[in-house]
Amino acid sequence: MAQIVRPDARYRHSYLAAHDEFDGAHRDGDGEWEQAADPATGFEGYTFTREGLADKDEFIRFVRSRRAEELPESPRPAGHVPCTFLWIVEGDEYLGSIALRHELNDFLLEQGGHIGYSIRPSARRQGHATTALRQVLELAGELGMERVLLTCDEDNPASRATIEHAGGEYEDSRAGKRRYWVTAITTDRPAGAVIG
Hints:
- By secondary structure, the protein is an alpha+beta fold.
- It has helices at residues 12-22, 50-53, 56-68, 106-112, 128-142, 157-165, and strands at 3-5, 34-35, 46-47, 83-90, 93-101, 115-119, 147-153, 169-174, 177-183.
- The protein has a single domain (3-183), classed as Aminopeptidase (3-Layer(aba) Sandwich), CATH 3.40.630.
- It contains six helices and nine strands.
- The longest helix has 15 residues, at 128-142.
- This is Putative acetyltransferase.
- GO terms for molecular function: acyltransferase activity, transferring groups other than amino-acyl groups.
């Protein structure tokens, strides 16, 4: 069964195979591979490439950068918010990414929402997005969030169905994005316990 985990170097080969499978398509929930330095915030910036990530040490650096994003004290570019990046896996196989943004800025309120996700093409239509979304809604509850905003493109019926299956209440559409509010799942576990 699929589960969410924090990024880990053990998935390097599978992650890179999935990257190749996406063939340049945008992967919501996976973050950017390049961020310019921002001296105003102390963010040093980074650049990762497909070729570079084939190197084990570079992939470890990549994993560390993703995991640091969830810490409120981590330097980040102006306008970016703390974000927990997670990978959807089954055994040793990377299936996709899902991210929980801890707060909304103006752009995220309009377009991006709290949660973004993508499933590699060969793993789609198998319920992995639904499973991962439920787990992230539990994480949101553990972090004290009551409701989260999810968005999807107007022409993405699969994502729309996933969000509605999770209880998403449609609010409106803005600039080609459907906006849904979903109630976080309350648990009595400590923050982060849902992550494998």
